[in-house]
Amino acid sequence: MAIAPMTKTGKPALRLARLLALLLPAALLGGAYVSQYGFGLFPCEMCWWQRYPHFAALPLALLGFARPGWRWPIAVAALAIAVSGLIGLYHAGVEYRWWQGFTACTSAIQLGGGIDPLDAIMNKAPLVSCDQPQWTLLGISLAGYNFVLSVGGALVIMALLGRSRRV
Fold first, then answer.
1. In this structure, is the dihedral angle defined by the CA atoms of residues 69, 72, 58 and 95, taken in order, positive or negative?
2. Beta-bridge mates of residue 136
């Protein structure tokens, strides 16, 4: 009696790749927004750069669900996820002082309610430097975790797409 291998091929692999291409950027963006609005960890400029490819991956993954026969949206979503991870690697390198980063800083300014914009910029907006991690776990910053999860996830998605070609 032969036991079937546990590796997914064909349609199950494609479904799993499609699901991962949607859930990974959604979870990472969700975590970014929870950390920002729930815990006050305001993003620096490079943090925002890491979000943009995930924003691009979401509609591509949804297109993969809308057109299940199309594999290319999932592959492009995986590429976008990998780009976010590589930006995370660059950002983590700046935080760990492996290389020089950009000197620009960003801030979260909320205008309205009669607030003077210049006063908000100069006195009320938190300045967030790209070379200072706001949070770490086991010595790894959020940018470092984005690198690990995004690049690892993109590789898994691409491997699943490769397996889905085999039937």
1. positive
2. 141
pLDDT in tens, 144-166: 899 999 999 999 999 999 888 76
CA distances from 60 to 28, 30, 37, 148, 158 (A): 16, 17, 26, 21, 14
Instruction: Convert 136-158 to b/e letters by CB count within 10 Å (16 or more is b).
Output: eeeebbbbbbbbebbbebbebbb
Dihedral, CA of residue 130, residue 147, residue 57 and residue 32, to nearest 10 = -50
Give, rounded to a whole angstrom, the gap between the first and last alpha carbons of the chain. Answer: 21
Encoded tokens for 106: 């960003």
**Residues 6 or more apart whose Cβ sits within 8 Å of residue 146:** 28, 50, 84, 85, 87, 88, 91
Higher pLDDT, residue 59 or 122: 59
Decide if pLDDT at 128 tops 80.
no
Tokens of 15: 């479904």
CB 10 within 8 A of CB 160: no
Q: Which amino acid is at 20?
A: L
- Model confidence at 89: pLDDT above 50: yes
Place of tokens 């760990």: 96
